[in-house]
Amino acid sequence: MLSYETQKIGLLATTPTAFGSLLSRNAVAAMNDLGVGGRARVRVGIPNHGGDSLYNSIKLDRATISTGPVINLHTESPIAIFREVDTKPHVILPVNKKALRFTIGRTVVFARKVNHPGTKGLHNWQYANQQLRLRLPFAVHDAVEAALKMQPYAKRYS
Q1: Which of 129, 53, 121 shows the shortest CA–CA distance to 81?
Q2: What pTM was computed for the model?
Q3: Quick one: pLDDT at residue 47?
Q4: DSSP assignment of 4-61, as one string?
Q5: Which residues have a Cβ under 8 Å from the Cβ of 101 and sit 6 or more positions away?
Q6: Rounded to 5 degrees, what are φ and ψ at 43?
Q7: Are 121 and 84 in contact (CB under 8 A)?
Q8: β-bridge pairing 100-104 and 72-74
């Protein structure tokens, strides 16, 4: 109880705008910390080939003081959905040619059709969403506690 009273007295000694701006900065820092951790979770299992790969297309719009404590994790890649969800077995046929061409190891293979076995989705976006929902209360608590002590938010998840 004594430590709380000390914090309360220290809080009353500061101006409301100083506390409010520190609380806003801490809330934004906590959300950005969660966003970086969420982006890392979404990228699990996706190879980083550089350039315009799916790994590099996953973007994080960071929170700012003006936008408020809001983060947006997104991608424009059309193949992202096929990495996220399960796909059923299907037949792949050539569209503009007579045969498909692909490599297996160092061997070039031509085929009129391919029976694709389907894929198991990674479900990383679902896991990242669950992770953010679980971590949010702790991050907000840490941001408020740091503001009450007149300290900046300390990164926890990134």
Answers
A1: 121
A2: 0.76
A3: 86
A4: HHHHHHHHHHS-HHHHHHHHHHHHHHHHHHHHHHHHHHHTTT----SSS-HHHH-EEE
A5: 108, 109, 110
A6: -80, -5
A7: yes
A8: unpaired
